[in-house]
Amino acid sequence: MNQEFWSGKRVFITGHTSFRGSWLALTLQKAGAQVFGYALPPTTSPNFFDVGNVSQSMTSTFSDIRDAQSLKSALEFAQAEVVFHLAGGGGLKDSWSRIPDVYSTQVMGTIHLLEALKETASVRAVVILSSDKVYRKEVGASSFKETDPLGGNEPAATSKACTELIVESYLQGVFAPEKYNKHKIAIATARMGAVIGGGDFAPDSLIYQLAQSCQAGVDLPLRNPDSLRSWMHIDDAVSGLMLLGQSLIEKGPKAVGPWNVGSGVESMATVKVIKQAFVNAFQGKPMVNIAESPGRSVHGGLDNSKIEGNIGWRMHYSSEQAAVAAAHWYQEYYSM
C-alpha cells in the first residue's frame, strides 16, 4: 500500500459505517486522503465507527443506498476520484430473514451507483466489494479462480453474484474498457471472504463472541469446531482494496473486472484453531497446536494468483496471526 499515492486524493466510500468500511475510511484518512462517506448509521452499539472516531476527519452522509437522488447528490458533492462501494453487506444467516431487503440493497444500490457515475466527471476508479461465496460450489472444489462459474446458496451470496453480473454488463456497454478514453472510468470487483480483527462488534461475529467470553471469564462453546474456513485480517482486507483502487487509477482498463482478494487454501484454519489462538493471546498464554478431527466441513478458498502476479498484493497475516492480533485489540479496548 502506497500511502503517498493516497495523500490528497478525494475518496468516496459507501458503507463507511460498517466494520470494513470504517477501517478503510480511517486508513485512508491516515494516508492523507480526503474521505467522504455514504451509509446508514451504525447498526450496533458499540461500533468501530464511533470507537475509532472515524467521523472526526471526514464528511458523512447518512442515507440509504437505494435512495438514488441522495446518492447522486452526495457523489457530486464529494467530487471524488476513487469510489469504494461497500454498502449492502450482511451476514449469510440473517439474509434468509430479509430476502427482499438483501436483493434490493445489493442490486438496486449498485445500479444506482453505476448510473450516478455516468454524470460524475471526477470519478476515475471504482472498487465494488463482492464475496468469495459468489462461486458455484462444485463437488471437490477447494479453490476458486475468477473464471469459475458464479452461483451461491444464500440470498447474501446470490445477490452478490447478481451484482457481479450487473457490473459485467456495464463493462460490456457503458464503461467498456475499449471506450475508456471516452468515459475514463475503470471498475473492478473485489471478491473477499470473512474478515476478522479488532472493532468487529457484530453480534454473530465469532471474534466478538470470543472477546466477550474471554472478558467475562467463561468458555464459548463452538457449534462447528472442525469447520475449515478462510480468515483474513482487516489490515490485509483494507490494503487489498486500496491497492486495487490504486491499480485502477494507474492501469486503467487493464485492471477492470473481478479480482480475488482473500485467503487461499494454504491459509485456512478450523474454527477451533482460531478460538484457541484468540483465547491464548487474550489470556497471555503461549499458543498451542490443536489436533483437527476428521470429517470436518470445508469452505473453499480463493486462488489469489491473479492479484499476486498483476498487482503484487499478498496477505501478511496467517489465520492464527489474525486471531492473535484481534485478541490484542480487544484487550486494549476492554482496558480503556
TrEMBL record:
The record's keywords, sorted A to Z, are:
Lyase
The gene that this protein is the product of is: rfbG
Tell me its EC number(s), please.
Answer: 4.2.1.45
**GO MF terms, alphabetically ordered:** CDP-glucose 4,6-dehydratase activity
Pfam families on file: Epimerase (PF01370)
Q: Which InterPro entries match?
A: CDP_4_6_deHydtase, Epimerase_deHydtase, NAD(P)-bd_dom_sf
Q: Which Gene3D superfamilies match?
A: NAD(P)-binding Rossmann-like Domain, UDP-galactose 4-epimerase, domain 1
| Top-level enzyme category | lyase
SUPFAM superfamilies under this entry?
NAD(P)-binding Rossmann-fold domains (SSF51735)
What's the protein name?
CDP-glucose 4,6-dehydratase
The record's comment on protein family reads: Belongs to the NAD(P)-dependent epimerase/dehydratase family.
**Where is each NAD-dependent epimerase/dehydratase domain found?**
11-248
Give the source lineage, highest ranks first: Bacteria, Pseudomonadati, Bdellovibrionota, Bdellovibrionia, Bdellovibrionales
